[in-house]
Batch of 4 targets.
Target 1
Amino acid sequence: MTRFQPPRGIRDYGPEETVKRNYVFRRIREVFERYGFDELDTPAVESYDLLSAKGGGGEEIKKEIYYFKDQAGRELGLRFEFTTSAARYVTNNPNLSLPFKKYQIGKVWRYDRPQKGRYREFYQCDADIIGSAEPEADAEIISMTVDALKAVGFSDFYVKVNSRNLLEGLLVQEGVPEGKCEEFMRSLDKLDKIGEEGVLEELVQKGFPEPLAQSAMSRVTSQESLYSGLDKIKPENDLATKGFEELEGLARALEYYSPDAEIVLDLSLARGLGYYTGLVFEVWSKEFTGSLAGGGRWDNLIGLLGGKSTPATGIAIGVERLILLMEEKGMFKDLPKTACRVFVAPVNDQVRKEAFKILKILRSAGINAETDLMKRKLRKQLEYAAAKGVPYVVFVGPKDLAEGEVTVRDMRTGEEKKVRIDDITSMFS
Ligand code: AMP
């Protein structure tokens, strides 16, 4: 019989993987909370009307929404990120005190083309500041993301920033008709995926004359430090000036918020999702093609959903790519394979009761511990503990018990020592 598999692009996460994942979540959550953010939990299923709302994710993402009808015929979909749900929440809770600083950690779903680091179900750690139009809010989001990535152990990454207003203004300066900039930017957003030639081909297909497409593209495909990059820009229209000023404000705020971070001005950065209004940012690793995190300003969405017009900015860190990179770089090598710290092993049947007592002492002290539940011989118990990766085994034997002791083995070094039962918890705390 053929065995059932998860749907294409969707995977199981075995216990060893969830230990890694939970480690990453824990670290990121700690940093988010250190910055004064609280967790918001919204449903995985939202009405399709919300997910596809005008001013929301945009046309490109609509093709990727998991869509279905419930038994009463309601049109629903799975969330493809958290921002739309957050905007709905703020719309429905107009008395929230601002700025509303929230984070969300959970699964999102996109009918994307599966490949390395790209799945149809994946986790995001998302954080938003709702209510502040100040560049300090953007700087706080960037600085927090930098700290979160450092907390999980990364150092080799940089932050790309841009303003969609500056990009649009520069495209107009280069001769792209005003009403066509959005379309131009949608193709430009695929630069990392399909390269300059691919983008050019797509632009020509869309009807942009090749020389125009080429010159406009070469105007915006430069990357350099935010500070020196800004010096070289001469905005010639209102939109470009607005974008330039947004970036200047961000640069000023970042100077004291996140002075050590590597910030790159990437004039081509547009970000695919439709709701971005001004500043946009992405975090890139030097060792992975594709962004690790992405975000920006979404000042219009709450107003468009019928709420009081409220500025907002935020970011989503993609967890799968972090884990992929961490695995490749051996960053999990010191992380235990299991959350269990101690295996209590009775050496024979007569001491099983005593072993349970010791197990209880450990658990009452908050130490993750387990014992044999299959009446196995000691050798088999040890094989189990080793295969699971439990770092310590406590041997419970009659001779030691007579002395009020047990023997503790460090499974990584093989080192053993006798410990008084009265002191057993201090060994693991
Ligand atoms: P986005 O919401 O598209 O801005 O993406 C934010 C982050 O989520 C990206 O930087 C990636 O790290 C991650 N991400 C986006 N799409 C996928 C996907 N299909 N599979 C895994 N991670 C993804």
Note: The radius of gyration is 27 Å.
Target 2
Amino acid sequence: MAFNKGRKSSKGHLANSFRGKDFISIEQITSQEEINFLFSLADKMRGAVVEKRQLNLLDDSTVAILFYQPSTRTFTSFKAAAMWLGGQRIIAIPGMEAYSSAIKGESLPDTIRTIEETTRADIIVLRHPDDQSSEIAARYAEIPVVNAGSGKKEHPTQALLDLYTIQRELGGRDGLKIVMLGDLKNGRTIKSLAKLLAVVAPSTEITFVSSPGLAAPPELVSDLRKKGVVVQERENLEEVLSQADVLYVTRIQKEWFASQEEYLKVKGSYVISPELMQAAKKGMIVMHPFPRVDEIDPRFDKDPRAAYFRQMANGLYIRMALLAVILGRN
Ligand code: NCD
């Protein structure tokens, strides 16, 4: 893990390679040990929340959560995570793009420095439409920055909760077959998850399924192959569905399309329905980072293979674990 910060240097507790550091890219995870460390803590966080046990690990910490793009799950789970951990001062601002001085033309570096000065925060959680936003914020902030989604590029905390979900649902089996479906060009979740799998589960076989024009970036595909992952690319879901252990569905990312017309051409290309899912294995799972638009028919929700609501619940425990380890209170 790189990106050490001066104000909170890592001392003692060798297992915690997250302490005092930014978490801005999934590529910072380089070992299974880091994952085991974080996931076992997430299990403990789950235990506390299920028993409604308020924790006090962050009772001397100030947490700033700044979102420049819409969010339901990531925003609320980060805020709830800070609160379950006993955070007393939580400055959580959705709609930064409209309600901060960004609208007057203030730069991200100035806003980040301002938030540090005005809140004395110990950590900044940032979601922003620019690919480089978290790197830029981390460069200017003296405190750790956590990337809660940057542009089309990265969503590292989502990748952690996705992997945690796969392990909880299917165990740590080798050679899982994962089909990633939808807008693989613009979506950031599949990029971070695929990179994480290449490091901690390189025997995973990934099949990307998308409409023409929405394929995964060629650099991602070649990078995964270089790391030894078997990657296939398809347009037809039916051809590969029966093999899948995980079907990871994503939304067509309307906000990145040049026109409504372009979007309408691909909208609804793949719809997961109970009928379609008769061809899939019994013990497989369907995941989706949500929000869903029309990619999964709600009639499928009661199928035990529908893991997406369990998946979003895991976001709370993973984000609690992450805040605790970065702030050095685990
Ligand atoms: C995703 C995102 O923001 O990238 N949502 C999330 O964080 N769970 C997926 C999306 O917007 O489609």
Note: DSSP finds eleven helices and nine strands in the chain.
Target 3
Amino acid sequence: MTLPRIVVLTGAGISAESGLQTFREPTGAGPALWAGHSVEDVATASGYRRNPGLAHDFYRARRAEVAAAEPNAAHHALGLLATEYGDKLLLVTQNVDDLHERGGVAGPQLIHMHGQLATAICTLCREPVTAGECGAGCPICFAGTLRPDVVFFGETPKEMPRINRALAAADLFIAIGTSGDVYPAAGFVDKAIASRARTIELNLHASDRFTQFRGGPATVTVPALVAELLS
Ligand code: BV8
């Protein structure tokens, strides 16, 4: 039996039950990430240039929260799915935390399309530096400085050609815990539908853009869906 090709897109909602705040709506983990911060100041290249220290503080605080968080049942269920599906599964995350890696998905099966907290990049040579201290001098070219390795608004998300190829070949597209507010990720469901894939949304609220919606917290809906796919 040939396995279907699956593309999974995750957003901040899959990490909410690990205690990490989402961007736009307060969850049990406290106020929304961007509450009290201007998105312009902490998530745009111009804001970063204007006040890099503010962005460094914002991302340093999130790195500390991620270090104290644990992957939840949804992350682990996707780890099981990734093990079973191998190269038939591509997990694209908008999240910059490392909970998917710690839940068992890594390497070529995982794309952090909006970057990751675990690395910093040099403003000049663009080389990634693992856990490099933002604001420090680049230890590779000794000419640039290190900035958060996250994709700001107005910057190009990572690995888009590979993501688009996977969406064109997908039999099943699953979006988990994302508001669908930010493009190009928010447009992936349309590409999947154009490729005649089945589309399933796992969220607390339905966006009505998918062929199927399953409501509830990710730690309930994701393990249930993975169990179905593995049976
Ligand atoms: C680009 C940085 C060109 C890292 C982020 C007009 C129309 C279309 C597009 C645009 C436009 N004007 C401007 C644009 C482009 C812009 C954009 O989309 N703007 C929006 C505001 C309109 N996009 C860009 O600039 C992107 N770049 O377009 O370049 C290009 C395009 C294609 C190809 C080449 C070049 C760059 C976008 C990246 C911005 N960086 N973050 C960081 O800080 O983490 S965005 C940030 O918000 C996240 O990274 C994430 O991607 C995004 C969305 O957040 P979500 O993950 O969805 O989280 P949110 O809080 O919104 O929602 C949580 C969800 O979880 C909710 O639905 C909730 O119900 C659910 N939930 C909560 N708890 C649970 C749960 N679900 C299940 N269980 C639970 N327990």
Note: Residues 11-13, 16-17, 22-25, 27, 43, 94, 96, 114-115, 150-151, 153-157, 160, 177-179, 181-185, 203-205, 217-218 surround BV8 (CB under 6 Å).
Target 4
Amino acid sequence: MRSSSETLTPLPLLADPDGYAPHTVDLIHDPEARAYWIEVFEHHLRSLVGCAAASDGGGPDAEQRAEQLRVQFQATLDRLKAEPDAFGELNILLICRLREQALRACGFADAYRHIKAAENDAALTLLPEVLAELDRHADDRLEALIRGVFAGNIFDLGARSTTDRFEAGGFDFRQTRAEVDARPWVVDDFDALADRWRSGSYRKAIVFVDNAGADVVLGMLPLCRELARRGTEVVVTANTEPALNDITIDELTPLLQRAADLDPELAAAMGTGRIVAMPSGNDAPLIELNAVSVALADAARDADLLILEGMGRAIETNFDARFTCDALKLAVIKEEHLARMLGGHLYGAVCRFDAGR
Ligand code: MG
């Protein structure tokens, strides 16, 4: 099922590796959830087909392969409706992987590559002023940073409006951040996080990032910079293989360099190895933490903080996962089903903090 043949291994920070299951939602035994999520993938297929064709230049060959993608993946979804256990298990991660498999089978290596590049460029132009503004916060800087993560995570290219807003030049990160809900958030462990933050610095953080563009550049990088500034060694980890608009390691590495060119503190942190980038081994917009790259597993052994960011990584696959070190799960809810599950609302924020055990 995986697109990579890389050797993968469990993240050593899992508190119960044998009992770990990367699925918050079981689609075999919950027909209502199954119908909901298959419809989400069906709806998304329309925009995916357009992105895929555009990513390969949009000519007749690309259009034809995009149509083939539409037919092929729709057939997979129809099969799952009729035969939920066709693949032995059924969960959101599996359907994501089937989608990436269909893209590759139709010759699309990275359907969102142009969009990701454009988003990264746009976000970088805003980075200096976002950092300068955050630096003016003193006592409430941590909350401002977390709100920034939420604002960035709203921009997810399941949502086409993101691209439209970028193209129209109408994206205002600060405006979006101002629109993030006031506390209490849907899941709100911020006070516990802030208490821990005040008690001293972490030694080493493993930070799983999500989408290219504002999400990683304006949301997560400032948080990583603040951790590094406090003396934490920060390992920023991104997908090895492309999946939707998630940033890949091959995109993250040059992006960090470009960000460092814009900010002396980021440059210093990268120059001294306090911020490094590492491939996660992952090939999906969700993540299975019992199958990460060997390099990441080695780096994680002495970490005392894990950060999972984004709906796929923090909620859909790992909301209930427990870790031996402190774990911070940050995301904005962009699906009604998850909003109902968490007793919240669409675009509600999740800040879950669990002490290590
Ligand atoms: Mg994503």
Note: The first strand starts at residue 8 and ends at 9.
